[in-house]
Write a structure and sequence with these properties.
Length: about 260
């Protein structure tokens, strides 16, 4: 295989959930640029952002289809995944849907905790289960989940529900990889450092001291750039370049976790 073919997604079908968000949008764009047909989905409340994602991909000449998906709803996840599989096949699932809660544990209500767990952890399980059923039947496929550098450690800000949910995503990834591996399906997750700015991290603009501290704490002395620092790892994990990688938590954090 020649070098350019290794990362090509021509003829592949990629589903990106959370594609109205900044990192999901970028993952969709990267997949489209490598030649995939990209199905982009998000919660109905994020329709305007999803429309923007579709417009950006179409402007670049990418093949794109929009769908709706609430990852907390079993019926919605099933409908989304089966419709992509029926219309295009399903080679790659990228799950970038997620919510964050910056709150001390003593002030966090049970409903708030539950919501974060529902979206981040149960949503990942529902999507992995639905995609896994399709992919194991086809004996091939790749799943990319989104955890965080804080999946296996805690950060400086109180976010107990977020940290716990993403720790679950990391071990769920290993668990799905072990169940699906013998069926030719790979499951990996990304442990991202702080990518700024995105909707999720936008509030940091009001905390310039924290932002500076985070840059300084990162070995590369800068935060992740949503417009370029995700591109390489998505290209790798979605393509044949990662055919012997599974069950891994891949750190894309500028070296934060090395310190
Ligand atoms: N930005 C960072 O610094 C950072 C760092 C580590 C991990 N992450 C993870 O990366 C992923 C993307 O983050 P982002 O920064 O692009 O955030 P974002 O807020 O821009 O995007 C998140 C997307 O998830 C969608 N979503 C929320 N609830 C949903 C539901 N029930 N069903 C379907 N979609 C739903 C939102 O509508 C939004 O479009 C998240 O899982 C996040 O935890 C981000």
């Amino acid at each position: 295989m020649s070098e350019p073919d290794l990362f090509s997604l021509r003829g592949r079908s990629v589903l990106v959930v959370g594609a109205g968000g900044d990192l999901g949008r970028r993952a969709a764009l990267v997949s489209g640029r490598w030649g995939a047909h990209v199905s982009v989905a998000d919660h109905p409340s994020a329709q305007a952002n999803l429309d923007e994602t579709v417009a950006i991909l179409r402007d670049e000449g990418c093949a794109v289809s929009p769908l709706s998906c609430d990852v907390t709803s079993e019926a919605s996840v099933h409908a989304c995944v089966t419709s992509v599989a029926r219309d295009h096949g399903l080679d790659v699932l990228i799950n970038a849907a997620g919510v964050m809660l910056r709150k001390a544990v003593a002030e966090t209500t049970l409903e708030e905790w539950q919501r974060v767990l529902d979206v981040n952890l149960t949503g990942t399980w529902l999507l992995n289960r639905a995609a896994g059923r399709v992919m194991t039947a086809a004996a091939h496929g790749k799943i990319i989940n989104f955890a965080t550098v804080y999946a296996e450690r805690v950060g400086p800000v109180p976010e107990s529900a977020y940290y716990a949910s993403k720790a679950g995503v990391a071990n769920l990834t290993r668990s799905m990889a072990s169940e699906f591996g013998s069926h030719g399906v790979q499951v990996n997750c990304l442990a991202l450092g702080v990518f700024y700015p995105t909707n999720m991290t936008a509030a940091l603009k009001d905390a310039p001291d924290t932002l500076r501290w985070m840059e300084e704490r990162t070995l590369l002395k800068r935060l992740g750039d949503p417009a370029r620092d995700l591109d390489g790892i998505i290209s790798l994990l979605a393509s044949n370049g990662s055919d012997y990688i599974t069950g891994q938590v891949l750190y894309v954090d500028g070296g934060w976790s090395a310190w």
